[in-house]
Amino acid sequence: MATTHKTRMLIIGSGPAGLSAAIYGARAGLEPIVVQGLQPGGQLTITTDVENYPGFRDVIQGPWLMQEMQAQAEHVGTRMMWDTITSVDLTGDTFKAIGDGGDIYEGDTLVISTGAQAKWLGVPGEQELSGKGVSACATCDGFFYRGKKVVVIGGGNTAVEEALYLTNHSDDVTLIHRRDSLRCEKILEDRLMANPKISVLWNKRVERFVGGENSELRALALIDTQTSEESEIETDGAFVAIGHAPATELFKDKLAMDDSGYLLVKAGTPKTDVPGVFAAGDVCDHTYRQAVTAAGMGCMAALDAERYLAEKEFSGVTATVQG
Predict the structure, then answer these.
(1) Which residues are catalytic?
(2) CA 111 from chain center: how many Å?
(3) Which of 192, 146, 205 is nearest to 171 (CA)?
């Protein structure tokens, strides 16, 4: 039998943004509910070494960090629900989310932290060598390739920005693009072409990622998109930079989004175009996409949700007194 769960703060998504919102919301007495979704803990649960999250002098493991965040959220009063939301209703006095088992979750406020997933090429060796030389985040993992040879796959803004960033760590960066011209902004292209540490392989498509004897990435097998000629480029690290897909399908036609599907928020805030509904983390951030920025946005969402409820309750009291 379906159950209805009510809370003052409903949070969909359990990555750094959602759990940070839960910690702040629980400390404010909002008794938040976090619906964890298909990937509890978010992308950090599939990230091994984390070296850039503040507060840890040594490398930590992504799954461990998320376990600690969840434990902290539960310790201060958060309820964690193992469920996947299949539909939402943002039109009433409370916001409703329906789980795939039929349970109903009602919140006086709603924090959306469903995240985004990196787009992958879907070729052999890619997932097998993920974390062993293959990555989708240069900002996250570039530090591990100091002084090594790296490649970036893609031709848009993300790929060019990743290639430029990697020159902070490597003097040998190759951008691999399947076309003969880039799809990025002109200023980024000019910076790329002017950088002596970067070379470009045009009209090349990655056919597979090749592992070495130690089960780590050794090379990329390529095919020329014009001549079909096969080739191989040896590398220590490969960064797939063909974009991200935000998990916002639930909110289509319910909340404002940009052309790529990221939720739109008021500048400098987590506020969506529906009062009482907030977005935090990669679901609305296509620029930074870091655990620490997601956590910060989760904090902002909880603080704004608390203020929203206080103002709503004050308005209700005022209206009653005046009436």
Answers:
(1) 137, 140-141
(2) 15
(3) 146
